Amino acid sequence: MRPLEVxxxxxxxxxxxxxxxxxxxxxxxxxxxxTAEHGTIVEVTTVRRSATIGPDDPPIELALVRSxxxxxxxxxxxxxxxxxxxxxxxAGRDGGVSAGALG
Length: 103
What we know:
- This protein has one domain (5-101): CATH 2.40.50.840.
- It has no helices and eight strands.
- The protein has strands at 5-9, 15-16, 31-35, 38-47, 60-67, 72-77, 87-93, 96-101.
- A five-stranded mixed beta barrel has the order 4-5-6-8-7. It has a three-stranded antiparallel beta sheet with strand order 2-1-3, with no helix packed on it.
- A hairpin with a 4-residue loop joins β5 and β6 (72-77).
- The two termini are 18 Å apart.
- The mean pLDDT is 91.
């Protein structure tokens, strides 16, 4: 796992993830990177079947997380299920975002 970085606009301070060429708010192209270490779960869902999950595979827990850096992130929970309002640690993993409970 690696630290998760989000982009913050150098003009209006709007934070985004995933990275973009231009700020969706002010259209500037000046960015700085900020590490998003923690967040709070807003909503949780369980994926029981998909093209990659068979009937005998364990379900995947996903959460919408409001990062302390600003943007909402879709994260795979490392343990679960967790409840909305739970504080989590964020990390980049396998091209996506993962979250684990703090404490």
